[in-house]
Design brief:
two-stranded antiparallel sheet, alpha+beta, 13% strand, 2 domains, 187 residues, elongated, 8 strands
Length: 187
């Protein structure tokens, strides 16, 4: 007879060794079958308005109370159909995004004005760079993706005039979500 710990160990091993597509399919399936699992997954993968903007969340709660007096807030889910009095948390977007500017993954609920370090300009050829003196004349266009990688010290940022290989970014701001349907709130 298997113990819960033994089954959990086997399941964890199966999760680690299964192709991602199978794990995605399984997660979709069990979220559709169990309100408890759906609540748990939503709590981890999604963000509520109160996590992003507490003031906006308070306004929404006041409006909901005015429209639906006596509504029970966030009654726990059961495996059966949720009660008619139960209201779901108001989730507004995915928790994790990738920044369009810096390619960093970030938690949307922690996206503050100093989170993303980046350059605001473009990379351009530095005509006065010693790189071009040593190489002489390059056949074809200079500003190509290959040359930007191979001769990165021959290019510079227009915002701060630092070499394009400079890892010290000159500005900071909020992360910009890559997904256009994403949450664009900042703390």
């Amino acid at each position: 007879m298997s113990t819960r710990e033994h089954i959990l160990e086997l399941v964890n091993d199966a999760i680690e060794s299964s192709p991602h597509e199978h794990i995605y399919d399984l997660l979709h399936f069990i979220c559709g079958k169990s309100y408890i699992v759906l609540d748990a997954v939503a709590e981890i993968l999604l963000v509520t308005m109160s996590e992003i903007d507490p003031f906006e969340d308070a306004v929404q709660k006041l409006e909901k109370e005015r429209k639906y007096p006596g509504m029970v807030e966030d009654e726990p889910a059961t495996e059966s159909e949720p009660s008619s009095k139960r209201t779901w948390k108001i989730y507004v977007c995915k928790r994790w995004e990738t920044c369009e500017v810096c390619d960093e993954e970030y938690d949307v609920s922690a996206n503050t004005s100093g989170s993303c370090y980046r350059h605001s300009g473009e990379i351009e050829v530095d005509e006065h760079a010693a790189t071009w003196d040593h190489l002489g004349r390059i056949a074809g266009p200079i500003d190509t993706p290959e040359n930007r990688k191979k001769y990165c010290d021959g290019f510079r940022w227009t915002c701060c005039y630092q070499p394009s290989d400079d890892s010290d970014r000159c500005e900071n701001g909020t992360y910009a979500p890559r997904d256009a349907l994403s949450c664009d709130y900042t703390c």
